Fold these 4 entries.
Entry 1:
Amino acid sequence: MTDPIADYLTRVRNAIMAKHKVVEIPASNLKKEMTKILFDKGYILSYKFEEDDKQGIIKIALKYHPISKVSAIKSLKRISKPGLRKYSDVDNLPRVLNGMGIAILSTSRGLMTEKEARNENVGGEVICYVY
């Protein structure tokens, strides 16, 4: 697998389109941090990290509106790819849907949203947009 982050986003996107309640994803430290951010910002219902003989599994419970069954996540978009990395300094951090969505950044202080990076006054690699 050449791009595990794109695989993570694609698995979540496909599960949402198929209206699944839970999606299982092979674990890594970066994926665990991305999952924590999605949970903290209210895009997923819950998550659980399970250990197995290999690398572990992340189980994510997806969040839907109770009446209309619309997902909390409308779009997941990979920005920085292995072939073309996208970096942003603190002055040019992206705003997703004029602040309604989030951009996940990999900074020198770990994974964080663009709002947290603005508050910490750091830039970094723009991993993805979520709204």
Note: The beta strands are 22-26, 44-50, 57-62, 76-78, 87-88, 102-107, 110-113, 124-130.
Entry 2:
Amino acid sequence: MNKFYHSVYLQEDRCGGCFTCLKRCPTQAIRIKNQKASIIPEFCIDCGECCRHCPHHAKRSRRHQFDDVRQEFTYLVALPAPALYSQFNHMEDVNIILSAILLSGFDDVFEVSVGAEIVSEATRAYIADHPENWPYISTACPTIERLIRVRFPNLIPHLLPILPPMEVAASIARRQAIEKTGLPSEEIGIVFISPCPSKVAFTYAPLGLPKSEVDRVIAIKDYYPILLSHMNEADQDTKLLSRSGSLGRGWSVSGGESMGLLSEEYLAADGIENVIHVLEDLEDEKFEPGLQFVELNSCSAGCVGGVLTVENAYMAKTKITRMNLNEKFVHPEYIGQYPPPSEFAWTEPVVYEPVYSLGDTIFESMENMEKIESIVEALPGLDCGCCGAPTCKALANDIVMGAEDACIEDCIFLDKEFDTKGE
């Protein structure tokens, strides 16, 4: 299994070499050469920012199409992300959406928001029993997990070792489908309806477990027109299918997961640039003792801001808030019907991947660092991106590490010769 599987990719024939993605990428994973972008796979965290901002729609996300998925399995179970509920106007009853999902061709539906409520319960218990690694960092967003794994290794012990709601919901949905139909597992398709590309990448290269229970992932924005065509019929014949309350649905917006802790000792941040600042401060131990939990969402406003959604992120956040006003926090009639939260802990450790390493030994790394600093001193420090790298330091790093075609002459403002070896 490729631990660096990526959903985000470049459709080169659409790329105009405009530098927009170069400046938007939070991990400096993009380079521009010969008026075409390229993505450094080791640095990419599938946040989707390049997809969001590319004016030519050259950055795209791999995912499955519903019509294809329907041909693959005997029995299909939909896993709607809580963010799906926020994509419709004047929607007060999510049972209409869930009924429309069945009318569209799914055989059953299991809410990821139910998985979120189970994870909330597991999180409360784990944090209370393990104060030694406070604050714990949420592991619901795969982009944040990957970012910590490659850039903030000192924070790995603070990752909450509990599976994300998508996986919890998928595991329960598969068990129920097998019991209900008697079919073998391979004939049952568990399909996640996703707001973002990082969930796609997670299903191919999951963290904390050997294999994802999700078989296919379709995008909200692809499935939305199909679902919309069944809404009127669903409104006329609505089935009572929802089993989650405001707690589970609230996970779709920033701060929603933290509310499930029933504690005030948390921090919630959204937007990948803001998240990076929080992680840097966590690594530098700038927060006061007593902080128990850190919720981080790479998308602004939370999952409702995912690049695979259709509604404006902040309008979607308002809709979820309004929808939850008259809802129960959880549905008490379903408590105890699912496996205990303890079953959904990590079974495999998450380890550091040193993709930004400058050498195989500390001495080699220090030597290369000196070379990089020497080149940076000779560069103008404009960080303009005209060389095809996002910053002067990134260009220097590419030169020293032997990146293809990287050279000091790429800087169009350099007016003097320089020994690129730093000698």
Note: The longest strand covers residues 188-194.
Entry 3:
Amino acid sequence: MYNGNENAHTANNLIIGSHVSMSGKEMMLSSVREALSYGANTFMIYTGAPQNTRRKPVDELCIEQAWRLMSLHHMEGFVVHAPYIINLANTINPRTRQLAVDFLAQELDRTQKMGSRLLILHPGAHVGAGEKAGIKSIIDGLNEVLSEPGDVCIALETMAGKGSEIGARFEQLAAIYDGVRYSQRLRVCFDTCHVHDAGYDIAQDPGSVLGQFDRLLGKDQIAVFHINDSKNERGSAKDRHADIGEGYLGFAPLYALVHDPDFCAIPKILETPWYPDPSNPSRTLPPYRREIAWLRTGDKPEREEIT
């Protein structure tokens, strides 16, 4: 068991949840119910399937009913994740890039109408055109989308560096900030698995990693955390999430980050894999209820560290 008593005073104030689904007739209302079933006080949703652009009209999402249930349980907010198909960095295929710009604008509008103020976005992949061209394309796309008035901020996600992904280095995110005219509407989503897989030693030297981030972008720009362990060794650039305490990061560093007083007001979102049901191996179960409890209290069963 990891002794987390020194951070017990922060457990009740912890803003923590997970990715939840939004489907069926009750849509966002069912999302809130799922989050509450995990003991969460926030959550993350996609407005539709992350692999396509099919979306229900906003007036069919049961938004008012969802917010009433959230208010009853003192749940103050949630975050939205943009679909993976949005790639602002693609200069190779103009149609793909224009789709990204147009659909991102629609997602910003949907996010605002749903009542969230944060839309998480993968910066994109340059697909062979080179980092410089990709970053310029991202900047141009963000300037186009953010030129329209709105209250929603876009949180650029830290990436693992898989393929031609942009955002695996803090310097790349800083370059995007520097080029966007509306940078007051930019924030960062700090993904622990991605940062580890990109080569940063967030497990053994988190102070140095966060210090470097602070110098380049400012810690105040972190608006949400994705709290995930990693199935890969540091620097693998593979982006394969592991359950909390079951990977190369380990439980203690993630627990410490979740309870860092600098980030007490920042939502922490779990995106960890479902695990096999011990009584029925063909079935999988969500890990979020137990992981949220572990991260609140520090009471996770011990396991052997990966070497």
Note: The chain has ten helices and twelve strands.
Entry 4:
Amino acid sequence: METTESLGYLKGLLDGLDLDDNKKETKIFKAIIDVLDNLTEDVDDITEGMELLAEQIDAVDEDLAEVEDYLAEDEVDFDDCCDCDDYCDCDQCEEFEVECPVCKEIIVVDEDTVLGGSMPCPNCGELLEFEVECDCEDEE
């Protein structure tokens, strides 16, 4: 029996007892039934809200699955790409080996560092300066 049906059964039992409405016991029983009635309505409201929420979550889940599928189509395979930990576009992510003229340490630097023009050698502190030459031709 569901809660609503059980409550209806209790109300019927109370009415069937034909109790005197002026007695304290009758007032208590009726107050208890009223509280149970309110609780049943609250439970029904919560159940309806949860069902609505479940429908909304299912819709969001479907939308998210579509977004994941869309993004998976453009996914970059980093194993075939480079040693970067972050997302990169390999045309822009290049590394260069530079030898320090003082300590002869080989240092690997990225394109941004080279474009910055200089950096101190992490081994000896010597200022390493980079010159950038462009191999591209001016397009008209």
Note: The radius of gyration is 38 Å.
